[in-house]
Amino acid sequence: MLERGKPGFIDAVDHRRRSLFGPRIGIEGGRPHERRLVAVGFKPDRARVVAQRQRAFGDGVAIGVVGVGTRGLRLGQSRSALDLALPRVADRGAVRSGAELGTGEGRDPISDSTKVAGDRPNIGDGCGNGSRYFNFSHGNALSGGKYSGSALRAAQVNARAPAPSIGASTVCENPCVIRLILAASLCLLPASALQEPNILLIVSEDNGPELGSYGDPYARTPNLDQLAAEGVRFENAFVPYSVCSPSRAAFLTGLHPVQNGQIGLATHKFAMYRDDTPNFVTLLAAAGYATGLIGKLHINPERAFPFDFRAIPGSNFRREHSVDDYAAAARLFFQERGDKPFFLSVNYPDAHLPFLRQANGRPAEPLSAGDIAPLPWATVDSPRIRRQVANYYNCLARLDEGVGLLLAELDRTGEADNTLVIYIGDHGAQFPRGKGSVYEGGLRVPLIVRWPGKAIPGLVRELASTLDILPTALAAAGVEAPKGLTGRPLQPLLRGERAQDWRRHIFAFTTGSFPRNCYLQHSVRDRRYKLIRSALPDAQNPIAGSYLDEQHPHHVVSGAKAGEQTAAPEHVREAFQRWSRPPQYELYDLQSDPYEWRNLASDPAFADVKQSLVQALEQWQQRIRDPFLDPNNVRSFVEEQHANEDPARYRYKDGFSWSYVKELAQWRKDIQP
User: Fold this and answer.
1) How far apart (Å, rounded) are the C-alpha atoms in residues 286 and 226?
2) Considering only CA atoms, which of 122, 128, 134 is closest in space to residue 181?
3) Can you tell me whether residue 311 is helix, strand or coil?
4) Which residue has better confidence, 146 or 269?
5) Predicted structure pTM score
6) DSSP letter for each residue of 384-444
7) Where are the domains of the chain?
8) pLDDT in tens, 510-537
9) Radius of gyration for the chain, computed over Cα atoms and rounded to the nearest angstrom
10) Which partner for 439 in 161, 350, 394, 433 could form a disulfide, CB atoms 3.0-4.6 Å apart?
């Protein structure tokens, strides 16, 4: 099947009509895997330039891109099927002929500058000799020409005919044939392929991959497990910061927190550097999408994300709104968005503290302390802890019911087959060495992608990041991504391809997220090893204190009390001590020690591994212009946070802004990439 985002899909569409758009199409191309379809004559906000490659679909038939050069349309043969190919455009003159129809001037689709070309016969009258123009019209028929949709369907290319040898080609200059071939290729597209996909982003709160589909023995998550069975489950997916606001700003902007500025909680006045940062909402809205948000946003400033539709704003941590309310809000959004493609982000409060055993009658049969065991990466055991863990699983069961209700509403629209569904947790669970930390328990999250007909169901083990979500969605929608995005489109992995030059490292960061927890750490991991670097080695880490010190003003109920820590195994006690006053470096072999109990940083046998990861981290910081690469920025940030540990000094003051918002933004601007 011909699919968006794969080789050969003709991807110039009208965002508003969700059909092939009327203005003219030109081609820039080269080798089959380099050709690009170029839309010309669009208004600037509708221009589209999308990479194209040949694609096989059905039983051996392939339709590739169609193009014009200085000699007309070139038809090339490939090994398996017919490829409608274009020679490389050596200069702008070849593109210049892809001009506005019937006018005396042409538009260069690369620079969007008007140029004067030679004679330009108008193909609107049927078959002007020497014409170099195409016109895609609504209904897959050529406007102004003599070929109806039915006649064009009769002109489909038969790839079973004898083919010349590999690399052979012919050149067609007859505009009538050009139009027939173009229309034939369009007629072969399935109806859903002529539409931009809808995008449904489902976000749960404060949970790692404790799901049945990820092998958790206590999880009761049949709906998410079914989604994983129908889609692609990413085994090694991570967030760049394991606290809500930075994590959410990161996946909505496609930028690491140090790039967008949201390096702490929005409720504590942390904010992005700029309110005009391109993001999911602004980019897709400009492409004609209806945009909706159900649940919280929790990013500053909120005006940077101008959703068309909002429902159930706020955290809903008390679960006053049930999961049925989220489904009802989605139903309303689906009804109100008209005929536009949609981007809808649904954000559930589960499994954030408080871990409620039941809310609004869900789950109907909750788990109890005797039904579960403690989480393996937070191995503190007591009846109290087990009750917390059991209710954490009850939160996940309630979340799962909500996801089932939401997907049922999507099914009722009849558009599930044309909807890219992405599910993530915003970061790991709030247990010791989880949320707020740079350990795996805080950074590793579930990532499931379902895209019928486009994503091959299965398991992916490559390193993935929630920073990849925006590039993936933009590529699916055919929207050009802003420069500088940290993530990468997941499409090659979704197609089951062996990804070339995929990332070797995943990076993460924390500031502690608010003044009383201020502590700076970075982490980097590859497929096997993990390095943690602390900016203030051997200093007290208040993040750990919020879990381990009952006197901490923000001690959490899911933390470990003194008696529970004393009763813990020795390797757990040592890990807690190390977390409380971290050394400069920690190094873990995740293959033999997946829960990061044994620090290998001082082991000479791993010196080369350590140095390699230190170097990778520093190079990455330089590449993304991380302001905390500069010790002066570390010092000034920490000093300001410590001077404002009392929330009354800033939290309830109108107009308060942390100085880093301007200072670090300026530092990044002054540093050359």
Assistant:
1) 33
2) 134
3) strand
4) 269
5) 0.75
6) HHHHHHHHHHHHHHHHHHHHHHHHHHHHHTT-GGGEEEEEEESS--SSTTSTTSSSHHHHE
7) 13-194, 509-670
8) 999 999 999 999 999 999 999 999 999 9
9) 27
10) 433
